[in-house]
Amino acid sequence: xxxxxxxxxxxxxxxxxxxxxxxxxxxxxxxxxxxxxxxxxxxxxxxxxxxxxxxxxxxxxxxxxxxxxxxxxxxxxxxxxxxxxxxxxxxxxxxxxxxxxxxxxxxxxxxxxxxxxxxxxxxxxxxxxxxxxxxxxxxxxxxxxxxxxxxxxxxxxxxxxxxxxxxxxxxxxxxxxxxxxxxxxxxxxxxxxxxxxxxxxxxxxxxxxxxxxxxxxxxxxxxxxxxxxxxxxxxxxxxxxxxxxxxxxxxxxxxx
Length: 256
Description:
The chain is of the alpha/beta class. 34% of the residues lie in helices and 24% in strands. Helix 6 runs parallel beside helix 7. The protein starts with 5 loop residues before the first strand and ends in a 10-residue tail after the last helix.
């Protein structure tokens, strides 16, 4: 039996003040899957993804990525891990005053001497790689434009290009389309889907809309109050099942 690419075992996270964001969550992800994590606001989706790459420190439990126990790594080990785990954020996390190309190049920081970025030196091969990443997401012509001059959808494409610079084995996408309109949401998710299908990059993506989860996920995990309450094929979590899990008031997640 093949070793799981991502394994989460009895993961819990309690924030100061006693807020339990994750409560004994366990699951496995095979290499090449596109797993969508759904749930209402506050269900633990973002905390789960951020525990996987140690942006958030778990309170209890263990996590493995490609056979490496993430939760046992020291600081240097976490730094090496993050080279291979791309992160796409809801709020883009771009340096808005810098050009698009520079924002994309920061995806290589884990591989280059830190002081190079301080003097804005980037080796020619990294610049070429960044331009190719921008080409892949359809905005190479925006390379010299300041990030804050782009639309939300274009900024998220910059975020995807930046993640590509890491040449990741795993992409964690934390509600990457939550602030975008439906048409732009599909455009952005199609780029992530292409990376999954054509390059075999494993994807864990939290989404707020059931329709998007069923369209893009090969598998769906549903969280409620920090607990895993569903794990199965997208087709099994229709609107009736969703209401059974989250209640009749959970309508905002059903918007197409």
